[in-house]
Specification:
The protein has 107 residues and is mostly helical. The chain has one domain (5-105). It has seven helices and no strands. It has helices spanning 5-22, 24-27, 31-47, 53-66, 70-73, 75-82, 87-105. α1 crosses α3 (31-47), α4 runs parallel beside α7 (87-105) and α6 packs antiparallel against α7 (87-105).
Length: 107
Amino acid sequence: MLVDFTAVERLLETVATRLREEFPDAAALPDSELLAFLRPVLRRAALFGLKDEDSACTYALCAWLTGEDFASAFAEPRDICNSKQTAQDKAHALEDWLQGLIDASGA
């Protein structure tokens, strides 16, 4: 599958803004550092079909909280991302997975 790098670039600022609104540690980073983190994350998201703003943001949120390689490091998100579900269904499943981690940690 080819990645539309132009589309990824268009999402960068929007996703960065949303992360900064939610997480003080993201807000504290210089633009160059946050965008350097997000660019490969959003490219991977696009490879999994998560190309729209909401699903890409969900993928980026998971990466921010659990590590940029979360989709290969954890079995459940790996299965979700590689499934034939729609982008919206994948995003919802990733949200549920992340919420389960948060709930289990007592945060």
